[in-house]
Specification:
With 63 residues, the protein is mostly helical. It has a domain of 28 residues. The protein is 63% helix and 0% strand. The chain is rod-shaped, with a radius of gyration of 31 Å. This is B cell linker. It comes from Bos indicus x Bos taurus.
């Protein structure tokens, strides 16, 4: 039984390390994917309405 424990303990530790690495990668990918989605879905900024009509502002052409 002692020999079996010597074999299985390192294997189970490596398995736990591998599972932790996979878990961390999945968490990081989710964060990256959310950032990319936010960049793509970002709406254009809102522009305030003007207080004047577009025809009332007249600039003469300099000659």
């Amino acid at each position: 039984m002692d020999k079996l424990n010597k074999i299985t303990v390192p294997a189970s530790q490596k398995l736990r390390q591998l599972q932790k690495m996979v878990h961390d990668i999945k968490n990081n990918e989710g964060g990256i994917m959310n950032k990319i989605k936010k960049l793509k879905v970002k709406a254009p900024p809102s522009v305030p309405r003007r207080d004047y009509a577009p025809d009332t502002c007249y600039l003469p052409n300099p000659k």
